[in-house]
Amino acid sequence: MPSPTALDLLWGTRERPRRGPKPSLTLERIVGEAIALADAEGLASLSMQRLAERLGCAKMALYRYLPGKAELTALMLDFGMGAAPTFEDAETIVAEDISMEPQWRRQLRDWTVAVYDGMRAHPWMQELVVGTRPLGPNEIGWFEAGLTPLADTGLAGAERLDAIALLSGHARALAQQAADGPGPESAMARQLAETLAARADRYPHTLAAFAEPGVRDNALHFGIDRILDGLAVLMAARAGD
């Protein structure tokens, strides 16, 4: 029997053998240990040998469950993403500024923040979400959750896909910046204050922007709101047409 592909493993389309002794490992345990190793030491530290040592088995034993590292990382990404968030059913909710906010906006904001939180929890996923790859049920579930609020907005299918690409890209970019610790904007402001103290004539607008009092480390929500504002304008235009 040929080895299972990443898609076989992601979607469970290959029937597992029923005869013979009970396996000492499970695919779920293997992937869970791989995720724990990547969380602790980064994806570069992951190897089949290191994983076997964590599991207390021979390296060759892992190949009874999956063909190699490419299939392992595909499973890690889907398992690491977990189930997509679910949203409330109310037609409108009260936003933080006490104004009534359309349901689609709040749902997309919650979805984007969940993407950000997931990338912060598993920074190594940044390396796996680029390029063409096999998509598993959890990742497709995140697509579904992000597209659902846009279903009746009048946007075309490609526009809905581009909308969640913009939001997820924004979340991933900020999660990557924050990988070294909390407060990246505040830390940058302090560093720039020292660096530019004697160079204010060369960079007056940069210095002024960082020196101006206000809320720091709000780039995530600021960017989300600006993207949602743009989508609202487009939706209004579609409704007018």
UniProtKB/TrEMBL annotation:
PANTHER family for this protein: HTH-TYPE TRANSCRIPTIONAL REGULATOR RUTR (PTHR30055), TRANSCRIPTIONAL REGULATORY PROTEIN (PTHR30055:SF151)
Ranges annotated as DNA-binding: 47-66
Record keywords, A-Z: DNA-binding, Transcription, Transcription regulation
Record-given protein name: HTH tetR-type domain-containing protein
Every HTH tetR-type domain range: 24-84
InterPro entries found in the cross-reference section: Homeodomain-like_sf (IPR009057), HTH-type_TetR-like_transc_reg (IPR050109), HTH_TetR (IPR001647), Repressor_TetR_C (IPR004111), Tet_transcr_reg_TetR-rel_C_sf (IPR036271)
Domain of life of the source: Bacteria
Molecular function GO terms recorded: DNA-binding transcription factor activity; transcription cis-regulatory region binding
KW NAD (keyword) present: no
Biological process, per Gene Ontology: negative regulation of DNA-templated transcription
UniProt source species: Nocardia aurantia
